[in-house]
Amino acid sequence: MPTPFEIGIFTFGELTRGGDGSPIAPEQRLRDLLEWARVADEAGLDVFGVGEHHRPDFAVSSPAVVLAAAAAQTHRIRLTSTVTVLSSADPVRVFEDFATLDLLSAGRAELTAGRGAYVESFPLFGQDLNRYDEYFEDRLDLLLRLRAENPVTWSGTTRAPLQNAGVWPRPTSGGLPIWLAVGGTPASVVRAGTLGLPAYFAILGDPARFAAFADLYRRSAADAGRVPGRIGVTSHFYVEATSQGARDTFYPHYSSYIGQNMPRAGHLDRDSFDAWASPRGALFAGSPAEIIDKILWEHEILGHTRFLAQVGLGGLSQADTLRSIELLATEVLPAVRAATARATATARDVRRQSVPEVPAL
């Protein structure tokens, strides 16, 4: 049976200045995002994620710890890292942390492995940036071995070998889903497909260009003799009852976020913001109907089955963020799930009709 389309939220715990101009305190931001998790869970969203940074302007450096706190305050929502910077982490510790999270949450844990968009963790943990790719390849190999085998014997180039080593605890019988964050490069897409791992595309530019990556992902899996995994999409997000209201509310906050976190993009003026939020732009900022249409359009060209919205950007108020999360759950999710279910059923019927009947002997 096909997996229903899933929608969730995620955050890096940004400490962008709030509405009064003062920096958001990390303890306040952590309280905020735990409330986002509770509201998302109660409203019916499927996934809650937190990502990892090691900078003064982010509150989350340990996703597993934050997700464990969320596990204690939620009941059904899946809990994932978005992402775990595997290149600068010990895969044994990462596996143990997320296996523990899985047990605490009754099987709701997931892990997204990535190399990270920023490199502050490398000098922090004493690693050589010149071995950036080597670290990720080596440690991903070990992480997957840890999931598949126990005890495990392994040797690589970036950490001490393991000889018949038991790694505990083990996750629930459902296992520990591991996704890959692909960086929008052919090599990262091929890696995910070849390994048969589900993959996230972080769409910040033209969404249409990712159609070729989705095709490459599925071809790479087929060439490796694997069944392609699922594709997820992550995007910046804000929804309000009306399109104009959403954009008027969100623009100053989003412009501040871009200026702080993507300085190379320069100042984001209102015309550029509106272009990014247009029907074929990468930014999800508008009314529920606009958000629904854009998710369905991307689904047509990518075939993805999960959408994660990055919420609370740019010091947006807690009230506005919570209202946006609730609209995503109550207005957007049911419509997207119904439309994708109908499309799947129609495609299945077409395939059945195209198969000629075999006459009875």
Automatic annotation (TrEMBL):
A family per Pfam: Bac_luciferase
Keyword Oxidoreductase: yes
Any one GO MF annotation of this record: oxidoreductase activity, acting on paired donors, with incorporation or reduction of molecular oxygen
UniProt superkingdom: Bacteria
GO CC aspect terms: cytosol
Keywords: Monooxygenase, Oxidoreductase
The Luciferase-like domain, residue ranges: 6-300
Protein name: LLM class flavin-dependent oxidoreductase
